[in-house]
TrEMBL record:
Domain (Integrase catalytic): residue spans on this chain: 91-249
InterPro entries, per the entry: Integrase_cat-core, Integrase_H2C2, Retrovirus_Pol_polyprotein, RNaseH-like_sf, RNaseH_sf
A GO molecular-function annotation: nucleic acid binding
Coiled coil: none
Gene Ontology biological-process annotations: DNA integration
Enzyme Commission number(s) from the entry: 2.7.7.49
Entries under Pfam families matching the protein: Integrase_H2C2, rve
Protein name: RNA-directed DNA polymerase
Residues annotated as signal peptide: none
Name of the gene: POL_171
Length: 295
């Protein structure tokens, strides 16, 4: 197996699999067309491929492939909303200190009877959770919030729009009991909650590539759309949400074409120390990236 190292930082850069011409199509398909990546755009596709693979005229080939993808072409213009700005607020200091949530829909009723998505995303890691639901009443939103908290802990600040289902008396009681500071967008404009609104846009675009003709299977495709988002570089933090939460990337189809040797741990303590060191060094630059980001 031939490997390639870039000219810059040759001593530090990880070796990449030098892909022969006969396998380029397989790599492109795995990193762009696979359901686990959901036809991402050029930027995310090229970063995903660049992590492990190299061939001559790499960027040109990837750009042409994405630009000529029939599935992507057929979906262009699916969402023409302008980029949603984030409501200005202090930069978070740690994961799940600040979370944004929103309700999306109604969609075509799924085979499971669901019509909406409740979408939640962490400001620090950009890690998302998505819940298909039958309705968006306060009681349903409360159950989703408690499930989210059971996974990630109590949130310090929670952002949403001014919909009555998010700011009802019942919901406010939950916020008070848990000590959550609830904040609303500056207006009814969805752009006031930009962090989650851009996730909504990406999620809907991904689902549009995955669903069947009648769209009733969209619920079943949500996990794949989430996997694609969690394991893709996010511009504002310059890292993958899954890495910032778990300290590792998710195993994806390209890993079965070429995988780097995986470190083994003799005991849990060694893994714990390695994880702590890895996340400490990463978190040190995340806040700076967030402050510099326009998102």
């Amino acid at each position: 197996m031939l490997c390639h190292r870039g000219k810059s930082n040759r001593h530090c850069e990880k070796a990449k699999f030098l892909v022969p011409k006969t396998l380029i199509a397989m790599v492109l398909n795995s990193c762009h067309d696979s359901k686990t990546v959901a036809h991402a755009g050029f930027s995310r596709t090229s970063k995903r491929i660049k992590e492990k693979f190299y061939w001559q005229n790499f960027y040109k080939v990837v750009k042409n492939y994405v630009a000529s993808c029939h599935t992507c072409i057929s979906r262009r213009g699916y969402s023409k909303n302008k980029k949603a700005p984030v409501q200005k607020s202090p930069t978070p200091n740690y994961p799940f200190e600040k979370v944004s949530f929103d309700a999306v829909g109604p969609f075509v009723t799924s085979m499971e009877g669901n019509k909406y998505l409740i979408v939640m995303t962490d400001y620090f890691t950009r890690y998302p959770e998505v819940y298909p639901v039958k309705d968006i009443q306060s009681s349903t939103i409360a159950k989703v919030l408690l499930d989210f908290i059971s996974r990630h802990g109590i949130i310090k600040v929670l952002y949403s729009d001014r919909g009555s289902n998010f700011i009802s008396a019942a919901m406010q009681e939950i916020y008070d009991i848990l000590g959550i500071s609830k904040k609303q967008s500056l207006s009814y404009s969805p752009q006031g909650n930009g962090v989650v609104e851009r996730l909504n846009k990406t999620l809907i675009e991904s689902l549009s590539h995955l669903v069947s003709v009648n769209h009733t299977d969209w619920c079943q495709q949500v996990p794949l759309a989430l996997m694609a988002y969690r394991n893709a570089h996010h511009r504002s933090v310059d890292k993958k949400p899954c890495f910032l939460l778990h300290g590792r990337d998710l195993t994806m189809p390209p890993d079965f074409i070429y995988s780097e040797p995986v470190r083994s741990y003799a005991e849990t303590f060694s893994y714990k120390q390695d994880l702590i060191n890895k996340l400490n060094s990463t978190f040190a630059v995340i806040k700076s990236n967030l402050e510099k980001s326009i998102e």
